[in-house]
Design a protein that fits this description.
Layout: H1 4-18, E1 21-29, E2 36-40, E3 53-54, E4 59-67, E5 69-77, E6 80-82, E7 90-92, E8 98-104
Antiparallel strand pairs: 1-4, 2-5, 3-4, 5-6, 5-8, 7-8
């Protein structure tokens, strides 16, 4: 006999399986930078989760898998916050500065 918590756990697992994620490629031109991190509400603003890598063209890139939704983000470039210069969508954050915004469909 399954307990209610077992059934709830199975329902949660099934729910997670049904969530479709899309691959989103993020890129930043930051010539001379030694390290760049992609940070946003999709990773709880954690700099350990999405470090970016410089590609052969000199762009910093990172692919992330995101479910549909609206996300705020910034780049942390050598310890300084940068908005995405290629994205005109932004919103004000609780610190009085701006975050870039991306909508994943």
């Amino acid at each position: 006999m399954n307990s209610i918590s077992d059934e709830w756990g199975n329902m949660e697992k099934e729910k997670k399986k049904k969530i479709k994620k899309r691959r989103v490629m993020m890129a930043l031109k930051a010539l001379g930078a030694s390290e760049v991190f992609l940070m946003g509400d999709f990773n709880n603003w954690n700099d350990k989760i999405h470090p970016m890598k410089r590609n052969e063209k000199g762009l910093w890139v990172k692919a992330v898998m995101l479910p549909s939704g609206r996300y705020e983000y910034k780049f942390l470039v050598d310890g300084e916050w940068w908005n995405d210069p290629e994205n005109r969508d932004f919103c004000q954050n609780c610190f009085g500065t701006l975050n870039s915004v991306i909508v994943v469909c």
